[in-house]
Amino acid sequence: MRFSLRQMEVFRAVMLTGSIKGASKLLFTSQPALSRIVAHTENTLGLALFRRVKGKLVPTVEAEALYREVNHCYEHVLRIDEFARGLASGQSGTLNLACSPALSRGVVAATITAFVREYPNIQVNFVQTLLNGMAQEVLSKKVDLAISVLPIEHPNLRVETFLEGRMVCVVPRGHVLARKRRVSLADLGGHPLIAHHPNIPFGQLVASAFDKAGVAMRVSVHIHQTDMACSLVRAGAGVAVVDEFTMAGMAWPDVQVLPLAEDILLYPSIVRSVFDTGSSHADKFIELLRKP
Description:
One of its GO terms (biological process) is positive regulation of gene expression. It is built from 12 helices and 13 strands. It is an alpha/beta fold. The protein has 3 domains: 5-87, Orthogonal Bundle (Arc Repressor Mutant, subunit A); 91-163 and 268-290, Periplasmic binding protein-like II (D-Maltodextrin-Binding Protein, domain 2); 166-265, Periplasmic binding protein-like II (D-Maltodextrin-Binding Protein, domain 2). Strands 7, 8, 9, 10, 11 and 12 form a 6-stranded mixed beta sheet that branches. The model has no long low-confidence stretch (mean pLDDT 90).
């Protein structure tokens, strides 16, 4: 570079203060050193930047034009410096986060809200990911961490449970089952059931519970997303067994949520790669996630 950043800094200081003496005080550098830098700058650029008039430095027309460009550049360099210091202190940057749909509207949405309020300069990239794709998202480093509604088994993942939840029963408001304080799986056996597809974890979990209770499932509709189950319940297509987190995160005034007599437990978990060297942003998010 014929015009280095140090030369720009010295030139700007002289233009701001109007003298080598003033620039030396601004930059905490000796006057002879700055004089040499100014002379070298004029020589390498082939420009006369200052005229000496009665012991004062008077900028040339070329210097005035150059100063406008240098000042613009200097302001950008300051922003980069602030950004770098923010990265060092963990106050800026990006957090890439994946989450099971069941947790996205409630607990994770609340944590993201708390996170962006506390760290407004950290941008959050948030995506919903099904359990069968979560390992790839984390191990390919597309996301810094993932929050799964159920634990994931993988040799290269570090999975930590942070919460406990349950499946619940959802019925139309005024339904005959709504009179019960708790609904058993046997109670559900006599009604058309809207259930998650048996090929997905929720479906397997509920089918296993019915099998353990010795109750046959009368499935009328198989679904893949819990909000679809709730829409079908509202329309009167049947009753459903869904996760409590989705129900807590959405307002359904015309359906009733009832606890199940049998526990079908959920263990939401924090998912990170075992190769993860650590992300301060992810650590900050997890700290907020774990808060009661």
